[in-house]
Amino acid sequence: MIQRKPRIRQYWHKGALHREEDERSASYSELFWDLIFVAVISNLGFMLTSDISANGLQRFVLTFYPMWRLWTDTCLYINIYSSEDLVEKFLLLWEMVLLIVMGTHASDIFNSTAAIFISSYVLARITYAFLYIIYATYIPMFRIHLITTTWGIIIPSSLWFAAIFVPQDNVVFMLWASVIFELFWYGFVPLYHRLRTKHPANHIHTRDFKLIDEPTLTMDSAKSSPPSPHKAMRTKGTEFSWKWTDMFSILKITEYRVALNIEHWSERLGLFAIICLGESISSVIYTSLNKYPDIFLAKAILGLVIAYDLHWIYFDVDASRQYQHALRRHTFTGILFGLAHVPLDMSLIAFGSSLGRIVTLPDFPDAEHTPKPMSLKEGEESSHEFSTPLAVLFCTSLAIAMYCMAIIGILHKSLDAVDCTKLSKASRISLRFIIGTLYILLPLAHLSSLNLLITIAVLSMFMVFVETYGRLKRNAPLFATKCGEYVNEIREDDEEDNIKRYIRWRWGSANLNKRRFSTGFFRQNKRDKNEKINGYNSNNDDNVDVVVKN
Prior knowledge:
Layout: E1 10-13, E2 16-20, H1 28-50, H2 54-81, H3 86-104, H4 114-138, H5 143-162, H6 171-196, E3 256-258, H7 262-283, H8 295-315, E4 323-324, H9 326-329, H10 331-359, H11 374-377, H12 388-411, E5 413-414, H13 425-441, H14 449-470, H15 487-493, E6 501-506, E7 514-519, H16 526-536
Parallel strand pairs: 2-6
Antiparallel strand pairs: 1-2, 1-3, 4-5, 6-7
């Protein structure tokens, strides 16, 4: 289809979450969009390691953040408003073109390439502002939210654009002011609307549920009842006509609020972290001219071990067997969860790019008689000394990554009993802070590149072992003697006593609001499990989403 009618894929209304029936996952277009960032991130990492200084670090931050902002804008648009039509595909192509322009002109954003870099970024963001104004016309019940989002784009974009014309000494100040305002808007507006809402039923712990359109409709008769469009999707009527005051109703509270699809958003953040971590994988690959294993190969293997341990820690979340995600826990924890990924992603890029330099560094004994990697032999000259700035960049980036993962682990709420696991959550998370602090102190030891990688690999493996062992159920055997032994007991003990229900619907060409119902993400209590599931199984559209970490 060339163009579909604008729509909201999930939203809050008077404490009830209306959402699509089908589960969301990253589309092929989103994965191709991510592929553009693979090349862009590689370029940013190369520029960072080429100039390891305060000015180089500042340039890295001020070039990475706009690109991360564009990635976030696109993901949020697809998460909430995606129509999956031809217009949306060309929109993604347009954003990709502008992103390529930014990536190729990120080398000197304070001087010669500032105009084209900033202009491309502003144009990419203003495109979404223009799109949201159009949506505000077609979806009037969400007009206030769309206008608020539009102002959140226009105001900082104006600051970015003004940086082109200010004196060179003030460019950095204008860029930092724009970044701070965007981060403030990203966190303040959702939190403001959440705290000012008059419906406490919006809290995640709501158990009672009532249909909005037909309060007397039962679950058994829901499928047989004639569907009626929800009034949130109506676009006709004088009560929905534009008023000039609507353009300035930024913080007005309405009963309709758009909602994030948490599964899709958390998946997208995880995939972007994998892209940033992928910089380290590409860095350990080099062309060897030695017919025997050498120190370069040993350092590459150690670098791979460290990168895999980071991946392991990140996707183990807070090392709990059961947890409530930060995005579900509260608006405040959800905002911090998203913001924590900004320094995390930057630190992963810095780690990967510096790792590539360390792997090919010939600072070990008898290096003169060892064939150099192809990258060094054909042009890139390398000192035989392990420079302090490179060691500091490598270790500090690893430390920041560990601190961010520790903070993310704190934001998630553990649902394990106090005496459920072998080690408490506080002990496991504290270890991340301790290991991160040790990473920062390692450059003071003035180790060689090989010894530094060995030390960090041992520390990271120790942390992975402790967290993996600590999250095991107390008194559980380390090795099962039979297939499936102890699994059923763990799953039964991991059940929770709350259940959340919400409205879902299926998008279709005939009726955009054909309702279907399902249960939410909370686990049921063991004593109520059979009774509730048997009751819901009478409706074939019901399911129970369980988050269990084995």
